[in-house]
């Protein structure tokens, strides 16, 4: 196929599956100027023939499965090559010398590979036409002096060194910096201070200094970076920053300051950033919140601080908010009636591990977009509010560790998307009744925790019959006679009852692999006597406890429910950097 285009100048097969083509057969036209084989599922060694195309200007082999080194010897000088993209492969080894003698090279992307070795900064200083350099996520070594690099590559506009292995230093001298610099990412580069050279970057759009060793207060001139409206994305998380000065980034959309040492009241300079869309201030030592003015904010993370006081009423006015996490703080008092505004617009609310009291407001109206609600670990009383029956998209409901009362809310079985229901450690009582409105209640349920309550009686067989998401259809395995009841394999069931009358003993999470659905029916009918049929389940439980310690804690911290609570942000939002 490729051998017949002898005069071809451009070949773009991006995202076309040509995995059956061997790289060694790519004898492409020598007059080719542009070759795009991105996302074509090619694998194996990089074909030497491609690097001998003397007219080549743009080469993109990214997002494939190439392995090995970049060819160290080529028969021609790639004097016309302006763009080389090899990112997201499995390439390794050291960088070849000819790479640094391509005088026309403007864009170099070697990110997301396994390149290694100590690359002297002087090597890149020869690429004077370079505008974009991507070396992130590799295994390089060595120390680079940032000011020297920026003053040498005077045309550089984008520099990505995050998790590259390089250590970046600065002497904070007054070196030249391209005023058109746009994107700078230096995450995990052992940087200890804010380089003063940033001050000259008046058109910077994106700045990532996360996971470094920067301590103390952010410099007062930080607000000058990006000019008046340029900077859209700033990530300073996972450092040792203690305070923010009074400055303003008027066009900022994404701000990450989590996992620092910021203490005291909420930084007032952030309150005036009216263009914020995403704000993460979690895992600091913030003690108080002011009135907010973020009318376009969609994601707000305040968890794991020391914030005291009642629920902030200004949050109720944020009609654009999608995701709110206030967990692990010291909030107290009643949950206000304006809570209804939040459930009408938000997809995820986490207010767990605070000191909220009173009842959960019974909201009237639509909460169709709500996917997750956690109020675990408060001092809430009363019954489960009936408005939750209107939350058709609800997938996670965690009301555990409160003082809620009443009988089992069987009407929650009508929620076809509910995957996790946690009601443990409350004051619920009485028999667990099956839903009377649907034939198959809880069809999507995968996690159920009713431990440490006052439930009595039998477990309704109707629930087990409809827990389809806890089952794994065994299509290819021969069925045993005992499988005939269901034709399914039970993978994991988590039902933990406190000391009560259902079995007359304390049960932990049951990790079951038996194919016998009647095993569960036997639990409901057995009372205090356990038949030999249970022995397999107890053996598995004992094994889980020996291997994992406290099974309940392990399941919460390391398994499905913890991941599911962050479903909205991970599944629906890919944080694209702001192109202002």
From TrEMBL:
The record's listing under Pfam families reads: LRR_14, LRR_8
Which SMART domains does the record associate with it? LRR_TYP (SM00369)
GO cellular component annotations of the record: membrane
Asked if the record carries the keyword Transmembrane, the reply is: yes
Checking InterPro entries in the record gives: Leu-rich_rpt, Leu-rich_rpt_typical-subtyp, LRR_dom_sf, LRR_R13L4/SHOC2-like
- Ranges for domain Disease resistance R13L4/SHOC-2-like LRR come to 30-214
Q: Chief subcellular site?
A: membrane
Keywords in alphabetical order, please.
Answer: Leucine-rich repeat, Membrane, Repeat, Transmembrane, Transmembrane helix
BP GO terms, sorted: defense response; response to other organism
The name of this protein is Leucine-rich repeat-containing protein
């Amino acid at each position: 196929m490729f051998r017949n285009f002898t005069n071809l100048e451009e070949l773009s097969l991006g995202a076309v599956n040509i995995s059956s083509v061997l790289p060694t057969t790519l004898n492409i036209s020598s007059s080719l100027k542009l070759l795009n084989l991105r996302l074509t599922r090619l694998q194996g060694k990089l074909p030497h023939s491609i690097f001998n195309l003397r007219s080549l200007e743009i080469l993109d082999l990214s997002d494939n499965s190439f392995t090995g080194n970049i060819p160290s010897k080529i028969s021609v000088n790639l004097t016309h090559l302006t763009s080389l993209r090899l990112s997201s492969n499995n390439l390794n080894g050291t960088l070849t010398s000819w790479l640094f003698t391509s005088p026309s090279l403007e864009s170099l992307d070697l990110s997301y590979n396994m390149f290694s070795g100590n690359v002297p900064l002087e090597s890149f200083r020869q690429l004077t036409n370079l505008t974009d350099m991507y070396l992130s996520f590799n295994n390089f070594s060595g120390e680079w002096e940032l000011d020297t690099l920026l003053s040498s590559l005077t045309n550089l506009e984008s520099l990505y060194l995050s998790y590259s292995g390089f250590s970046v230093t600065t002497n904070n001298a007054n070196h030249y910096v391209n005023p058109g610099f746009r994107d700078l990412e230096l995450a995990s580069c052992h940087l200890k201070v804010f380089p003063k050279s940033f001050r000259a970057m008046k058109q910077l759009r994106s700045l990532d200094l996360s996971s470094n060793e920067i301590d103390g207060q952010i410099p007062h001139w930080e607000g000058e970076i990006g000019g008046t409206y340029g900077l859209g994305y700033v990530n300073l998380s996972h450092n040792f920053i203690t305070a923010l000065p009074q400055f303003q980034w008027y066009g900022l959309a994404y701000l990450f300051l989590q996992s620092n040492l910021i203490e005291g009241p909420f930084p007032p300079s952030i309150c005036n950033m009216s263009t914020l869309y995403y704000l993460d201030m979690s895992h600091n030592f913030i003690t108080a919140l002011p009135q907010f003015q973020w009318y376009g904010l969609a994601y707000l993370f305040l968890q794991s601080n020391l914030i005291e006081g009642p629920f902030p009423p200004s949050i109720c006015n944020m009609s654009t908010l999608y995701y709110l996490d206030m967990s692990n703080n010291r909030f107290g008092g009643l949950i206000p009636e304006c809570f209804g505004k939040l459930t009408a617009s938000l997809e995820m609310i986490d207010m767990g591990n605070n000191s909220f009291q009173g009842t959960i407001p019974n909201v009237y109206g639509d909460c169709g977009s709500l996917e997750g609600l956690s109020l675990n670990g408060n001092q809430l009383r009363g019954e489960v509010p009936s408005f939750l029956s209107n939350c058709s998209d609800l997938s996670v409901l965690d009301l555990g560790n409160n003082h809620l009362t009443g009988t089992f809310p069987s009407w929650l079985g009508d929620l076809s998307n509910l995957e996790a229901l946690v009601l443990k450690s409350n004051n619920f009582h009485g028999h667990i009744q099956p839903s009377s409105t649907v034939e198959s209640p809880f069809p999507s349920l995968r996690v159920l925790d009713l431990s440490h309550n006052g439930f009595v009686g039998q477990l309704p067989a109707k629930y087990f019959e409809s827990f389809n998401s806890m089952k794994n259809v065994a299509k290819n395995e021969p069925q045993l006679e005992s499988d005939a009841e269901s034709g399914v394999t039970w993978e994991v069931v988590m039902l933990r009852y406190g000391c009560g009358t259902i079995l007359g003993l304390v049960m932990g999470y049951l990790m079951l692999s038996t194919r016998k659905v009647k095993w569960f029916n036997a639990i409901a009918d057995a009372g205090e006597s356990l038949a030999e049929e249970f022995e397999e389940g107890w053996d598995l439980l004992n094994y889980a406890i020996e291997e994992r310690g406290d099974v309940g804690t392990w399941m919460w911290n390391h398994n499905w429910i913890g991941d599911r609570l962050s479903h909205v942000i991970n599944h629906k939002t890919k944080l694209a950097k702001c192109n202002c």
